[in-house]
Amino acid sequence: MTKEVMTIREMCDAFDVTPRTLRFYEAKELLFPIREGQKRLFTRRDRARLVLILKGKKFGFALEEIRQLLDLYAEDGTGVKQMSETLKAYRRRLAEMQVQKDELVRVMDELEAEIAWTEEQLGSQGS
After folding, report:
1. Domain ranges of the chain
2. CA-based, 20 to 30 A from 41: which of 25, 28, 69, 111?
3. Which CATH class name applies to 1-58?
């Protein structure tokens, strides 16, 4: 992806997203394609932002959280503050996910015990 700009179709193909998704992110002011009439041209900056948006969504971040992290780049232009805050957000999200995982494992263990008990009850009924 060394092209300076990409069309909406090229973006869809490259990132496996729909045109509707790209227009939605544009409407939410997360992406800022160049407009030439009806045509949208996405810059390298847009592509980098889309990568971060898609990662954020995959990791369970809300769009507003993603926007706040993306906007940090504009504050210093180096990306250091953005990366630092993103790292903090990633660690918080991982901790939240660990709690969810632990709860899920606990509930699964309870369910397995219920299955075993129910199978035992059914087995004793047939004897």
Report:
1. 1-58, 62-127
2. 69
3. mainly alpha
